[in-house]
């Protein structure tokens, strides 16, 4: 990778990082942000995404076995683990071309956490997506025969939230790593238990609980600071945070996952989770 390509890659990441994309960000702030990235892993991932064979040989030697280990940890089955790992490896290599151009998921790695952690998050999300697709194959007739009751559609809420709250929320979510976004989406959007999330990420349940507590507290502070930056007083910012998130015109799921299904956080205050409990009361 040439110096010009490397510089263009960093510029792209800075543009996507909302907090540093303003005219107020100094060269020192941008340099400090770039210094905090996993630059060597970032260069490897982007070189692989570009089809560099030398980079791919390096990637295979480092991560092929780890991918199979991650898949085995998630699926607990050798055959399914091999299928999941091989499918993800194909997506990373970019075997599916669009308009004649290879499309690799590695282009989405931004170096804000370890490449191994990012791969583990992407694999866990792929496993969940597969599970959802399997559940969607059950026909409506079969569900009706089993006594499933279907609720009426809920009308879209009126747009009542301050646009500054939407902007501050978007900026706060953009600062999260992919693994943190996956953790929040799994717990608050998908209603998965701490134990399920811990198994997907290869962590202990208590670690996931502490992470969610840290994330919820940190997000609230970031959104408050963002509202002040957007011109609100402290009292106005605190009042804005009482808004029901269903009134915020942001696709929160799209900010947290690559899933297109639209749901919302059940509680805008992001309550601290209780170990072993997937509720958000």
Describe the structure.
The chain has 281 residues and is an all-alpha fold. Helices cover 60% and strands 1% of the residues. The protein has 13 helices and 2 strands; from the N terminus they run αααααββαααααααα. Strands 1-2 form a two-stranded antiparallel ribbon. α8 (163-174) packs across α11 and α10 (194-201) packs across α11 (205-229). It is globular. Mean pLDDT is 75; it is low at 149-160 and 258-281.
In the predicted model, the low-confidence regions spanning at least 5 consecutive residues are 149-160, 258-281
Number of helix segments?
13
Order of helices and strands: HHHHHEEHHHHHHHH
Largest sheet: 2 strands, antiparallel
Query: Which strand order spans the largest sheet, edge to edge or round the barrel?
Result: 1-2
How many strand units? Answer: 2
Helix content estimate: 55-70%
Classify the secondary structure makeup into a structural class: mainly alpha
The overall average pLDDT, rounded, is: 75
N- and C-termini, Cα separation: 50 Å
**Overall form:** globular
Fraction in beta strands: under 5%
């Amino acid at each position: 990778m040439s110096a010009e390509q490397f510089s263009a890659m960093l510029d792209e990441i800075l543009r996507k990082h909302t907090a540093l994309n303003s005219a107020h960000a100094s060269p020192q702030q941008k340099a400090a942000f770039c210094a905090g990235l996993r630059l060597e892993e970032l260069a490897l991932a982007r070189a692989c995404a570009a089809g560099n064979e030398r980079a791919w040989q390096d990637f295979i030697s480092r991560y092929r076995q780890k991918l199979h280990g991650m898949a085995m940890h998630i699926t607990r089955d050798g055959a399914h683990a091999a299928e999941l790992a091989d499918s993800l490896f194909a997506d990373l290599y970019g075997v599916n071309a669009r308009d004649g151009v290879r499309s690799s998921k590695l282009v989405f790695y931004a170096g804000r956490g370890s490449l191994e952690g990012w791969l583990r998050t992407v694999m866990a999300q792929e496993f969940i997506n597969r599970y959802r697709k399997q559940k969607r194959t059950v026909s409506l007739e079969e569900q009706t025969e089993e006594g499933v009751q279907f609720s009426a559609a809920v009308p879209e809420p009126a747009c009542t939230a301050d646009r500054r709250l939407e902007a501050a929320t978007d900026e706060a979510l953009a600062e999260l790593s992919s693994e943190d976004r996956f953790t929040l989406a799994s717990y608050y959007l998908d209603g998965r238990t701490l134990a399920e999330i811990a198994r997907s990420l290869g962590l202990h349940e208590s670690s996931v609980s502490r992470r969610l507590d840290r994330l919820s507290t940190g997000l609230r502070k970031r959104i408050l600071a963002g509202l002040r930056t957007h011109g609100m007083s402290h009292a106005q910012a605190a009042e804005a945070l009482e808004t029901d998130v269903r009134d915020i015109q942001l696709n929160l799921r799209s900010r947290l996952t690559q899933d297109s299904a639209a749901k919302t956080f059940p509680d805008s205050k992001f309550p601290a989770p209780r170990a072993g409990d997937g509720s958000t009361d």
